[in-house]
Structures are given as structure tokens and as C-alpha cells.
Here is the input.
Amino acid sequence: LAKTTQPISMDSYEGQEVNITCSHNNIATNDYITWYQQFPSQGPRFIIQGYKTKVTNEVASLFIPADRKSSTLSLPRVSLSDTAVYYCLVGDMRSSNTGKLIFGQGTTLQVKP
Amino acid sequence: GAVVSQHPSWVICKSGTSVKIECRSLDFQATTMFWYRQFPKQSLMLMATSNEGSKATYEQGVEKDKFLINHASLTLSTLTVTSAHPEDSSFYICSAFSYEQFFGPGTRLTVL
Here is the structure.
């Protein structure tokens, strides 16, 4: 399973764009990149998933370079409610045998007013 | 979207007792469910992989006799913490797999 490395913490202000980069040098061909958000005392919540290039949904964008050894989660115009821990994970989502996810330390994002 | 529930959401028990936590996929079937444990200010730690109709696969360092997992149907997996001790106090989270993982809301276990 590919190991991921993220910054431990980040600070931002309301209305700013936040970019969190994750390194996954040993990503396998079949691995997808998935980002989760977790608030205290809650289960992780799916944000976005991608395999290559760029993926965008209503809450975030995910940028993946051609070599797929890193990825960047982009949160546009953050608000105080975006204060949470963000996890980057890689794994083969097509198979339950290999789909288990190993969580790294995550990035604690603190949004200030 | 896919919903996973856990019951109870929190539980307090005395040391030495056993506690059962249920994980249900409400609107989809999951052949595989995962159980995680999370201590304060730490990341989620995978405990075991539960496959319907077969024995669970435990991660290294997780005592299978202490953390009993049963996956009796495609929508239900249970985790039983046997002879619980204060060090077992933690936040237990399950997830159900259906081409991606859907996480439950977690169960806060406090052992006195």
C-alpha cells in the first residue's frame, strides 16, 4: 500500500483558497487517490477522488500530475466550517481485497476569521 | 448517497464487561467492511477487514480474541470488545466497501 505524506497542519483565513499537497511516491498503477475530511468525533467524509489529471466537484478540485506521485486538494474560498482534518489516501478502489485504506497523519486545517 | 450507520453512538461500560458495536450499510450491500480505531488527536488505525460469511482479517498487533468481528450479512458487521479495559477507550469507526469506502459516524467507547 502506498504511503502518503502531508503537512501536519495549515492555517488559512476565510475566503481564501487552500491547497493541500500530498506525496505518494510509491503509488501503484491501479491506485486511486481519495481525500477525506474529518471533524472531531465524526467519521471521515468523502471529498473527492481521482486517478489522473484534474477532477472537480461542487466542493473541491483535485490536481494530479502526470507522474501521479503527488496530488493537490484545492478548497476554494474556505469558511470557518472547513476547519477539519484532511486525509489523503491511495488504494485500488475496485477490489475489496486491495481497497483497504491506511490513513496517514492527515493535515489539520485551521480557518481563521 | 450511500449511508453507513453505527450503533450505539456512544457507550460507557465498566472494566471487564463486553461491548458490542453494530455497523450497518443502510442502502447498499457491502461484502467487505472495515473497522478502525482512533485515539484522541491521532489518525485512524485500521484494525481488521471483515468479509461477509468468512473470518475477519486482523492487522498486525490487533488481538483477534479481544476484538471479535462478525459479518453475518451483507449489511451488518459487529465488533465486540471483550473484557474491556480503560485502555480500550477509543473512537471506533467502521466503513463499508462498495467500489469506495463509506464511513460510519463512529462509536465513542469509554471504559471506566
Summary: Chain A has a mean pLDDT of 92. The CA atoms of residues 48 and 57 of chain A lie 7 Å apart. Chain A touches chain B at residues 34, 36, 41-46, 49, 87, 93-94, 96, 99-106 (CB under 8 Å).
